Protein backbone atom coordinates (compact mmCIF):
# COMPACT_ATOMS: atom_id res chain seq x y z
CA UNK A 1 0.00 0.00 0.00
CA UNK A 2 1.35 3.40 -0.98
CA UNK A 3 1.87 5.68 2.00
CA UNK A 4 2.87 9.26 2.68
CA UNK A 5 6.38 8.78 4.09
CA UNK A 6 8.66 11.62 2.97
CA UNK A 7 6.06 12.78 0.43
CA UNK A 8 4.48 15.49 2.59
CA UNK A 9 6.05 18.34 4.56
CA UNK A 10 4.79 20.79 7.16
CA UNK A 11 6.00 24.29 6.31
CA UNK A 12 4.03 26.34 8.81
CA UNK A 13 2.13 25.99 12.07
CA UNK A 14 0.06 28.18 14.33
CA UNK A 15 -1.63 27.82 17.70
CA UNK A 16 -3.60 30.11 19.96
CA UNK A 17 -3.17 30.08 23.68
CA UNK A 18 -5.49 27.34 24.92
CA UNK A 19 -7.63 28.99 27.58
CA UNK A 20 -11.07 30.21 28.65
CA UNK A 21 -11.49 32.70 25.81
CA UNK A 22 -14.65 34.49 26.93
CA UNK A 23 -13.64 37.55 24.88
CA UNK A 24 -13.02 35.72 21.60
CA UNK A 25 -15.29 34.00 19.12
CA UNK A 26 -14.57 30.80 17.23
CA UNK A 27 -13.71 32.93 14.19
CA UNK A 28 -11.23 34.97 16.25
CA UNK A 29 -9.42 31.80 17.31
CA UNK A 30 -9.35 30.42 13.75
CA UNK A 31 -7.91 33.66 12.38
CA UNK A 32 -5.24 33.84 15.10
CA UNK A 33 -4.02 30.27 14.63
CA UNK A 34 -4.20 30.24 10.83
CA UNK A 35 -2.48 33.58 10.33
CA UNK A 36 0.37 32.45 12.55
CA UNK A 37 0.65 29.41 10.29
CA UNK A 38 0.42 31.54 7.13
CA UNK A 39 3.18 33.83 8.42
CA UNK A 40 5.32 30.87 9.43
CA UNK A 41 5.01 29.33 5.96
CA UNK A 42 5.27 32.62 4.07
CA UNK A 43 1.96 32.10 2.29
CA UNK A 44 -1.41 33.85 2.11
CA UNK A 45 -4.98 32.51 2.28
CA UNK A 46 -5.30 32.93 -1.48
CA UNK A 47 -2.49 30.39 -1.96
CA UNK A 48 -4.39 27.59 -0.19
CA UNK A 49 -5.90 25.08 -2.64
CA UNK A 50 -7.96 23.02 -0.18
CA UNK A 51 -8.56 22.81 3.56
CA UNK A 52 -9.50 20.30 6.23
CA UNK A 53 -11.54 21.56 9.18
CA UNK A 54 -11.37 19.59 12.44
CA UNK A 55 -14.03 20.19 15.06
CA UNK A 56 -16.18 18.00 17.24
CA UNK A 57 -18.85 20.47 18.33
CA UNK A 58 -18.12 23.92 16.89
CA UNK A 59 -19.66 23.84 13.43
CA UNK A 60 -20.67 21.15 10.97
CA UNK A 61 -19.98 23.00 7.72
CA UNK A 62 -16.76 24.08 6.01
CA UNK A 63 -18.19 27.58 6.05
CA UNK A 64 -17.01 27.88 9.67
CA UNK A 65 -13.45 27.86 8.33
CA UNK A 66 -14.08 29.54 4.98
CA UNK A 67 -15.82 32.64 6.30
CA UNK A 68 -13.25 34.04 8.78
CA UNK A 69 -10.33 33.30 6.43
CA UNK A 70 -12.16 34.31 3.21
CA UNK A 71 -11.10 31.07 1.53
CA UNK A 72 -12.25 31.64 -2.02
CA UNK A 73 -14.73 28.78 -2.61
CA UNK A 74 -12.06 26.10 -2.32
CA UNK A 75 -12.88 22.53 -1.18
CA UNK A 76 -13.15 22.27 2.62
CA UNK A 77 -13.68 18.93 4.33
CA UNK A 78 -15.05 18.91 7.87
CA UNK A 79 -13.77 16.00 10.00
CA UNK A 80 -15.20 14.77 13.29
CA UNK A 81 -13.77 11.71 15.01
CA UNK A 82 -14.11 12.80 18.63
CA UNK A 83 -10.74 13.66 20.20
CA UNK A 84 -8.88 12.12 17.24
CA UNK A 85 -10.48 14.64 14.84
CA UNK A 86 -7.29 16.66 14.39
CA UNK A 87 -5.19 13.63 13.51
CA UNK A 88 -7.92 12.34 11.19
CA UNK A 89 -8.08 15.67 9.35
CA UNK A 90 -4.29 15.93 9.09
CA UNK A 91 -3.91 12.36 7.80
CA UNK A 92 -6.61 12.85 5.17
CA UNK A 93 -4.96 16.08 4.03
CA UNK A 94 -1.60 14.28 3.78
CA UNK A 95 -3.07 11.64 1.48
CA UNK A 96 -4.57 14.36 -0.74
CA UNK A 97 -1.18 16.07 -1.06
CA UNK A 98 0.78 12.83 -1.47
CA UNK A 99 -1.43 11.66 -4.34
CA UNK A 100 -0.95 14.94 -6.17
CA UNK A 101 -4.48 16.27 -5.85
CA UNK A 102 -3.22 19.48 -4.21
CA UNK A 103 0.13 21.16 -3.69
CA UNK A 104 -0.65 23.42 -0.72
CA UNK A 105 -3.37 22.81 1.88
CA UNK A 106 -4.46 24.02 5.28
CA UNK A 107 -5.47 21.87 8.24
CA UNK A 108 -7.18 23.73 11.08
CA UNK A 109 -8.79 22.49 14.28
CA UNK A 110 -10.75 24.74 16.62
CA UNK A 111 -13.27 24.51 19.41
CA UNK A 112 -15.26 26.80 21.71
CA UNK A 113 -16.29 24.62 24.64
CA UNK A 114 -16.39 26.95 27.64
CA UNK A 115 -19.43 28.90 26.44
CA UNK A 116 -21.75 25.97 27.14
CA UNK A 117 -21.37 26.62 30.87
CA UNK A 118 -21.32 22.89 31.57
CA UNK A 119 -18.29 20.74 32.45
CA UNK A 120 -18.50 18.29 29.57
CA UNK A 121 -17.58 18.76 25.90
CA UNK A 122 -20.39 19.41 23.47
CA UNK A 123 -23.27 19.74 25.92
CA UNK A 124 -25.22 22.99 25.67
CA UNK A 125 -28.55 21.76 27.05
CA UNK A 126 -28.64 20.84 30.76
CA UNK A 127 -31.46 18.40 30.07
CA UNK A 128 -29.16 16.47 27.73
CA UNK A 129 -26.52 16.20 30.43
CA UNK A 130 -28.93 14.57 32.87
CA UNK A 131 -30.82 12.36 30.42
CA UNK A 132 -28.95 10.92 27.44
CA UNK A 133 -25.58 11.28 29.15
CA UNK A 134 -26.40 10.25 32.67
CA UNK A 135 -24.98 6.76 32.12
CA UNK A 136 -21.80 6.84 34.24
CA UNK A 137 -19.99 4.62 31.75
CA UNK A 138 -20.25 7.40 29.15
CA UNK A 139 -18.65 10.06 31.31
CA UNK A 140 -14.98 10.01 30.44
CA UNK A 141 -13.68 10.42 33.97
CA UNK A 142 -15.79 7.49 35.21
CA UNK A 143 -14.61 5.23 32.41
CA UNK A 144 -10.94 6.09 32.89
CA UNK A 145 -11.28 5.65 36.64
CA UNK A 146 -12.46 2.10 35.94
CA UNK A 147 -9.50 1.62 33.58
CA UNK A 148 -7.19 2.71 36.40
CA UNK A 149 -8.73 0.34 38.93
CA UNK A 150 -8.62 -2.58 36.51
CA UNK A 151 -5.02 -1.81 35.53
CA UNK A 152 -3.92 -1.65 39.18
CA UNK A 153 -5.69 -4.91 39.98
CA UNK A 154 -4.37 -6.73 36.92
CA UNK A 155 -0.74 -5.85 37.65
CA UNK A 156 -0.94 -6.18 41.43
CA UNK A 157 -0.45 -2.49 42.18
CA UNK A 158 -1.91 -1.22 45.43
CA UNK A 159 -4.29 1.67 44.80
CA UNK A 160 -2.30 4.18 46.84
CA UNK A 161 0.88 3.18 45.01
CA UNK A 162 -0.97 3.54 41.70
CA UNK A 163 -2.26 6.96 42.67
CA UNK A 164 1.30 8.06 43.48
CA UNK A 165 2.54 6.92 40.06
CA UNK A 166 -0.26 8.84 38.36
CA UNK A 167 0.51 11.89 40.50
CA UNK A 168 4.12 11.81 39.29
CA UNK A 169 2.86 11.99 35.70
CA UNK A 170 0.73 15.02 36.62
CA UNK A 171 3.70 16.71 38.31
CA UNK A 172 5.84 16.08 35.20
CA UNK A 173 3.28 17.59 32.86
CA UNK A 174 2.69 20.61 35.08
CA UNK A 175 6.44 21.23 35.18
CA UNK A 176 6.58 21.13 31.37
CA UNK A 177 3.44 23.24 31.03
CA UNK A 178 4.91 25.93 33.29
CA UNK A 179 7.32 26.72 30.43
CA UNK A 180 4.68 26.80 27.70
CA UNK A 181 3.12 30.25 27.20
CA UNK A 182 0.30 28.71 25.13
CA UNK A 183 -0.81 26.31 27.88
CA UNK A 184 -3.96 27.00 29.87
CA UNK A 185 -2.30 25.99 33.17
CA UNK A 186 1.24 27.24 33.76
CA UNK A 187 1.79 26.39 37.41
CA UNK A 188 4.08 23.72 38.79
CA UNK A 189 2.55 21.40 41.36
CA UNK A 190 4.02 19.12 44.00
CA UNK A 191 3.41 15.42 44.48
CA UNK A 192 1.60 16.21 47.71
CA UNK A 193 -0.75 18.65 45.97
CA UNK A 194 -1.63 16.07 43.36
CA UNK A 195 -2.27 13.33 45.92
CA UNK A 196 -4.32 15.57 48.22
CA UNK A 197 -6.46 17.16 45.52
CA UNK A 198 -10.23 16.55 45.50
CA UNK A 199 -11.28 13.19 44.09
CA UNK A 200 -13.22 13.45 40.83
CA UNK A 201 -13.87 9.73 40.26
CA UNK A 202 -11.97 7.31 42.48
CA UNK A 203 -9.03 6.86 42.19
CA UNK A 204 -8.60 9.89 39.90
CA UNK A 205 -8.18 13.29 41.51
CA UNK A 206 -8.37 16.81 40.13
CA UNK A 207 -4.80 16.80 38.81
CA UNK A 208 -5.34 13.50 37.01
CA UNK A 209 -7.85 15.14 34.64
CA UNK A 210 -7.39 17.55 31.74
CA UNK A 211 -9.48 20.70 31.39
CA UNK A 212 -12.21 21.68 28.93
CA UNK A 213 -10.82 24.53 26.89
CA UNK A 214 -11.17 26.94 23.96
CA UNK A 215 -8.48 27.09 21.29
CA UNK A 216 -7.36 26.62 17.70
CA UNK A 217 -4.32 25.19 15.93
CA UNK A 218 -3.32 25.05 12.27
CA UNK A 219 -0.76 23.51 9.94
CA UNK A 220 0.20 24.24 6.33
CA UNK A 221 1.38 21.22 4.35
CA UNK A 222 2.80 20.78 0.88
CA UNK A 223 4.54 18.19 -1.27
CA UNK A 224 7.98 17.36 0.06
CA UNK A 225 9.68 18.28 -3.21
CA UNK A 226 8.11 21.76 -3.02
CA UNK A 227 8.88 22.40 0.66
CA UNK A 228 12.33 23.88 -0.02
CA UNK A 229 10.64 26.69 -1.93
CA UNK A 230 9.13 27.89 1.35
CA UNK A 231 11.78 27.19 4.00
CA UNK A 232 14.91 25.15 4.74
CA UNK A 233 13.82 23.76 8.12
CA UNK A 234 10.61 22.07 7.00
CA UNK A 235 9.43 18.94 8.79
CA UNK A 236 8.49 15.76 6.96
CA UNK A 237 5.68 13.32 7.66
CA UNK A 238 7.31 9.92 8.26
CA UNK A 239 4.34 7.71 9.09
CA UNK A 240 0.65 7.85 9.94
CA UNK A 241 -1.90 5.55 11.55
CA UNK A 242 -5.60 5.80 12.29
CA UNK A 243 -7.63 3.11 14.04
CA UNK A 244 -11.30 2.92 15.02
CA UNK A 245 -12.70 0.35 17.42
CA UNK A 246 -15.89 -1.71 17.29
CA UNK A 247 -17.23 -1.88 20.87
CA UNK A 248 -14.95 -4.77 21.72
CA UNK A 249 -14.91 -3.90 25.47
CA UNK A 250 -18.67 -4.47 25.50
CA UNK A 251 -18.88 -7.61 23.38
CA UNK A 252 -15.75 -9.52 24.49
CA UNK A 253 -16.24 -11.14 27.86
CA UNK A 254 -12.50 -11.80 28.13
CA UNK A 255 -11.42 -8.18 27.50
CA UNK A 256 -8.83 -7.22 30.12
CA UNK A 257 -9.47 -3.43 30.12
CA UNK A 258 -5.78 -2.78 30.77
CA UNK A 259 -4.84 -1.13 27.48
CA UNK A 260 -6.39 0.61 24.46
CA UNK A 261 -6.34 -1.63 21.42
CA UNK A 262 -6.86 1.30 19.03
CA UNK A 263 -3.70 2.97 20.36
CA UNK A 264 -1.74 -0.18 19.62
CA UNK A 265 -3.17 -0.55 16.11
CA UNK A 266 -2.63 3.10 15.12
CA UNK A 267 0.94 3.13 16.43
CA UNK A 268 1.80 -0.10 14.63
CA UNK A 269 0.49 1.33 11.34
CA UNK A 270 2.65 4.43 11.77
CA UNK A 271 5.72 2.45 12.90
CA UNK A 272 5.49 0.17 9.87
CA UNK A 273 5.35 3.10 7.46
CA UNK A 274 8.15 4.99 9.22
CA UNK A 275 10.34 1.87 9.58
CA UNK A 276 10.37 2.04 13.39
CA UNK A 277 11.65 -1.15 15.04
CA UNK A 278 12.40 0.05 18.59
CA UNK A 279 9.95 2.81 19.54
CA UNK A 280 11.63 3.60 22.85
CA UNK A 281 14.86 4.54 21.08
CA UNK A 282 13.39 5.97 17.87
CA UNK A 283 12.04 9.33 19.05
CA UNK A 284 13.35 12.51 20.63
CA UNK A 285 9.93 13.20 22.12
CA UNK A 286 6.31 12.05 22.06
CA UNK A 287 3.19 14.17 22.55
CA UNK A 288 0.38 11.84 23.58
CA UNK A 289 -3.26 12.02 24.63
CA UNK A 290 -3.12 12.38 28.41
CA UNK A 291 -6.81 13.15 28.87
CA UNK A 292 -6.28 11.42 32.21
CA UNK A 293 -2.98 10.41 33.78
CA UNK A 294 -3.95 6.75 33.65
CA UNK A 295 -4.22 7.00 29.88
CA UNK A 296 -0.69 8.38 29.62
CA UNK A 297 0.54 5.49 31.77
CA UNK A 298 -1.22 2.96 29.53
CA UNK A 299 0.05 4.71 26.38
CA UNK A 300 3.66 4.11 27.48
CA UNK A 301 2.94 0.41 27.13
CA UNK A 302 0.58 0.63 24.14
CA UNK A 303 3.30 2.39 22.12
CA UNK A 304 6.11 0.06 23.17
CA UNK A 305 7.92 2.64 25.26
CA UNK A 306 7.62 0.36 28.30
CA UNK A 307 7.00 -3.40 28.68
CA UNK A 308 3.47 -4.45 29.68
CA UNK A 309 2.88 -3.85 33.37
CA UNK A 310 6.25 -2.12 33.80
CA UNK A 311 5.48 1.50 32.94
CA UNK A 312 5.51 2.44 36.62
CA UNK A 313 9.22 1.56 36.77
CA UNK A 314 9.94 4.02 33.97
CA UNK A 315 7.87 6.71 35.70
CA UNK A 316 9.89 6.17 38.87
CA UNK A 317 13.14 6.34 36.88
CA UNK A 318 12.19 9.65 35.22
CA UNK A 319 12.34 8.10 31.75
CA UNK A 320 9.62 10.35 30.33
CA UNK A 321 10.63 13.60 32.01
CA UNK A 322 12.00 16.57 30.07
CA UNK A 323 15.61 15.48 30.59
CA UNK A 324 14.80 11.76 30.51
CA UNK A 325 15.49 9.11 27.92
CA UNK A 326 12.24 9.79 26.05
CA UNK A 327 10.49 13.05 27.00
CA UNK A 328 6.71 12.78 26.81
CA UNK A 329 4.33 15.76 26.68
CA UNK A 330 7.03 18.40 26.66
CA UNK A 331 4.39 21.13 26.25
CA UNK A 332 2.40 19.99 29.29
CA UNK A 333 0.08 17.73 27.31
CA UNK A 334 -3.68 17.94 27.60
CA UNK A 335 -3.19 18.15 31.34
CA UNK A 336 -1.80 21.69 31.12
CA UNK A 337 -2.67 22.84 27.61
CA UNK A 338 -6.31 21.90 28.09
CA UNK A 339 -8.44 20.13 25.52
CA UNK A 340 -10.30 22.02 22.79
CA UNK A 341 -11.20 18.71 21.21
CA UNK A 342 -10.92 19.46 17.49
CA UNK A 343 -7.71 21.46 17.95
CA UNK A 344 -5.74 19.10 20.19
CA UNK A 345 -4.37 16.86 17.45
CA UNK A 346 -2.90 19.78 15.52
CA UNK A 347 -1.49 21.18 18.79
CA UNK A 348 0.56 18.01 19.24
CA UNK A 349 2.08 18.55 15.78
CA UNK A 350 2.76 22.20 16.60
CA UNK A 351 4.91 21.10 19.53
CA UNK A 352 6.87 18.42 17.68
CA UNK A 353 7.42 20.74 14.69
CA UNK A 354 8.86 23.44 16.97
CA UNK A 355 10.99 20.94 18.91
CA UNK A 356 12.48 19.43 15.74
CA UNK A 357 13.36 22.94 14.55
CA UNK A 358 15.00 23.73 17.91
CA UNK A 359 12.48 26.51 18.61
CA UNK A 360 10.81 25.26 21.80
CA UNK A 361 12.56 27.65 24.17
CA UNK A 362 12.98 26.59 27.80
CA UNK A 363 11.44 23.18 27.19
CA UNK A 364 13.65 22.34 24.19
CA UNK A 365 14.82 18.71 24.18
CA UNK A 366 17.98 17.33 22.61
CA UNK A 367 17.37 16.36 18.98
CA UNK A 368 19.33 13.19 18.17
CA UNK A 369 16.96 10.83 16.42
CA UNK A 370 15.33 13.70 14.50
CA UNK A 371 11.86 12.20 14.95
CA UNK A 372 8.87 12.87 17.15
CA UNK A 373 5.54 11.10 17.69
CA UNK A 374 2.13 12.77 17.98
CA UNK A 375 -1.09 11.13 19.14
CA UNK A 376 -4.71 11.73 20.04
CA UNK A 377 -7.39 9.25 21.03
CA UNK A 378 -11.11 9.87 21.35
CA UNK A 379 -13.69 7.65 22.95
CA UNK A 380 -14.16 5.56 26.03
CA UNK A 381 -12.14 2.58 27.31
CA UNK A 382 -15.40 0.83 28.19
CA UNK A 383 -16.88 1.36 24.70
CA UNK A 384 -14.48 2.14 21.86
CA UNK A 385 -11.96 4.67 20.61
CA UNK A 386 -10.63 6.36 17.50
CA UNK A 387 -6.87 6.78 17.74
CA UNK A 388 -4.51 8.69 15.47
CA UNK A 389 -0.71 8.69 15.32
CA UNK A 390 1.50 10.87 13.13
CA UNK A 391 5.29 10.56 13.15
CA UNK A 392 7.21 13.68 12.09
CA UNK A 393 10.90 13.91 11.27
CA UNK A 394 13.70 15.83 9.62
CA UNK A 395 15.36 15.02 6.32
CA UNK A 396 17.43 11.87 6.60
CA UNK A 397 15.64 10.62 9.73
Task: Give a brief description.
This protein has helices at residues 26-41, 63-69, 85-98, 126-130, 140-154, 159-177, 191-196, 224-227, 248-251, 261-274, 279-282, 293-302, 311-317, 333-337, 341-356; strands spanning 8-15, 50-54, 76-79, 104-111, 199-201, 204-205, 215-223, 235-244, 285-287, 371-379, 385-393. The protein has 397 residues and is of the alpha/beta class. The chain folds into two domains: 8-118 and 216-227, Thiolase/Chalcone synthase (Peroxisomal Thiolase, Chain A, domain 1, 3-Layer(aba) Sandwich), CATH 3.40.47.10; 137-209 and 236-393, Peroxisomal Thiolase, Chain A, domain 1 (3-Layer(aba) Sandwich), CATH 3.40.47.
Describe, in plain words, how this protein is organized in 3D.
It is a single chain. The protein folds into two domains: 123 residues, Peroxisomal Thiolase, Chain A, domain 1 (3-Layer(aba) Sandwich), CATH 3.40.47.10; 231 residues, Peroxisomal Thiolase, Chain A, domain 1 (3-Layer(aba) Sandwich). The longest helix has 19 residues. It starts with 7 loop residues before the first strand and ends with a strand. By secondary structure, it is an alpha/beta fold. Strands 3-2-4-7-1-8-11-10-9 form a nine-stranded mixed β-sheet, sandwiched between helices.
Amino acid sequence: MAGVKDKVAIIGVGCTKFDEHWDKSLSDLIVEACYEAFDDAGVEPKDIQAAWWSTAWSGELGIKLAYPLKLNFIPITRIENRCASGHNAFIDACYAVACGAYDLVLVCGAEKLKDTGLPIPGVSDPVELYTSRVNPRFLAVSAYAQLALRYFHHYGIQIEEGRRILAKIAVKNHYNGSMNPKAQFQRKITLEEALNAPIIAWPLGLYDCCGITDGAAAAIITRADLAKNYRDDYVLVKGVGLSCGMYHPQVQDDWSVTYVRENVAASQMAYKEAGIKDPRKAFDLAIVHDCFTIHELVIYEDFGFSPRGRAKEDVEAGTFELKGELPVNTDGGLKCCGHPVGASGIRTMYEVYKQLQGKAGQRQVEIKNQRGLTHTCGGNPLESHAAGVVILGLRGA
